[in-house]
Amino acid sequence: MRNMEMHSERWLVGLCLTALLCLPAGLAGAKARVTAAVEATSGDQALDESAGIEDGADLETGDAGGCSLLVDDDALMEVCGNTSLQFARKGGAPDGPRVVKLDRGEIRMVVEPRLGEEKIEIHTPAAIATVLGTILHVAVDAQGITTITSEVSRVLIESSDPSVAGKTTIEGGQQVVVRPGQAPPVRAEKLSQREFASLGGCLLDFHATALHSDRKAATEAEIDATLAEDIADAT
Fold first, then answer.
1. Ramachandran region, residue 64 (left: φ > 0; alpha: ψ -120 to 50; beta: rest)
2. How many CB atoms lie within 10 A of CB 205?
3. Nearest 5°: phi and psi at 18?
4. 194-215: per-residue pLDDT in tens?
5. Nearest to 230 by CA among 111, 101, 115
6. DSSP secondary structure string, 41-75?
7. Which residues face 99 on adjacent strands?
8. Is the separation of the CB atoms in 42 and 65 below 8 Å?
9. Residues in the chain with pLDDT values less than 70
10. Do the beta carbons of residue 198 and residue 181 sit within 8 Å?
11. Which of 189, 194, 196, 203 has the smallest number of Cβ neighbours within 10 A?
């Protein structure tokens, strides 16, 4: 049964990563490049297809807005309506881990497997999620309460408050809710397939992607080993 679940998870990742291969040409090398936008702005400038987003620049979407972006050439992000975020590098280093600062709203990501310093960190008012490769949903409400859901692969979650101890690792198929100033729950909630399907995507329906991807990716074992090292270093 477990082998069937793992096969299904890898198949889903392969289908979703096809979206990265089917994006318009000429996006290589961009830190974050818009591939579609409705009521989305960076500063005072309205965003349209192929617009670039520099590190440190604000990205905002209206109530009925949204956009999709290619991040670092190997991660597809959907930004839903009424969302505010910034892109950065951890510590300000040009080759440091990618950081997405999500102040409010909702994002959906398909992240191709990454290892070590190539990982992505999503920072919210309540939590920091370390992502090595998965289909991920993150939502932040008006109080900063953060809901993190992983469809495939592990995600390491900790409080965004450095004075708060405690970390949680969620597996594919699990979800946690983190409140500002509190540690993430020790036990994650397991979601049903129907609950996952209801998450969908605000622009792209990840579940409906039906193409084949032959992009080479790091193995699940390598990702799990890298995350295990991160967890060991933190304890």
1. alpha
2. 10
3. -60, -30
4. 887 777 677 655 544 323 333 3
5. 115
6. EETTEEP-TT-B--TT-EEEEEEEEEEEEEETTTE
7. 88, 121
8. no
9. 1-31, 36, 115-117, 200, 203-235
10. no
11. 194
Quote the strand ranges of the chain, DSSP E: 32-42, 45-46, 58-71, 75-79, 84-89, 98-111, 120-123, 127-131, 135-140, 146-150, 155-159, 167-170, 174-178, 189-190
Q: Distance (Å, rounded) from C-alpha 80 to C-alpha 63?
A: 9
Q: What is the pLDDT of residue 65?
A: 85
**Tokens at 66, concatenated:** 């949204």
Residue 185 Cα distances to 170, 200, 234, angstroms: 10, 25, 17
Find all residues with CB under 8 Å of 119, minimum gap 6, and list them. Answer: 97, 98, 130, 131, 132, 226
* β-pairing verdict for 167-170 and 155-159: antiparallel
HSE (CB half, 13 Å, CA atoms) of 155?
32
Domain annotation for the chain: domains and CATH numbers: 2-234 (2.60.120.1440)
Q: How far is CA 222 from the centre of its chain?
A: 19
* Residue 228 pLDDT: 60
Chain mean pLDDT for the chain: 76
DSSP state letters, 165-177: --EEEEPTTEEEE
- Distance of alpha carbon 125 from alpha carbon 140, whole angstroms: 8
- DSSP type of residue 208: G
Calpha distance 78→37 (Å, rounded): 10
